[in-house]
Amino acid sequence: MMNDRWRQFYQPPPGPLARVAMVLVGIGVLALSFMLGLFVLAIAMGMALIGAVVLGIRRLLAGRGQPPPGQGPIDVEYRVVHRERRSDRDSD
To answer: I want to staple 18 with a disulfide (CB 3.0 to 4.6 A). Which of 13, 57, 67, 90 is the partner?
Structure first.
């Protein structure tokens, strides 16, 4: 039954020459797909390499020096206020 459904959509060519031509076309399509994949992979790898070089040069040019004295971390003082104490004080 499954074989009948498959034959409804695909009917192999009757002649041996047509079958050989179909195999050759299939091999050609696979080879073309493989080559196209290689080109896409080469382009992606090239873009990744260019991006890595650009980021590396940016990092080198930016330098890793100390930040200026006025632009470092901010020193602050703070005091912890507990809710229990504050609510006790508010009720007095």
So the answer is: 13
Distance CA 2, CA 8 (A): 10
- Alpha-carbon separation of residue 5 from 1, 2, 9, 14, 28 (angstroms): 7, 5, 7, 19, 28
Amino acid letter, residue 23: V
**Distance between CA 22 and CA 28 in Å, rounded?**
10
- At 61, is the secondary structure helix, strand, or coil? helix
* Per-run averaged pLDDT (10 residues), the chain, 92 residues: 67 88 95 97 98 93 70 82 66 56
* Residues in Cβ contact with 19 at an 8 Å cutoff, skipping those fewer than 6 apart: 12, 13
What does the block give as tokens for 46?
């090239």
Q: By the 8 A CB rule, do 21 and 15 touch?
A: no
**pTM of the entire structure?**
0.51
What does the radius of gyration of the chain's CA atoms come to, in whole angstroms?
A: 36
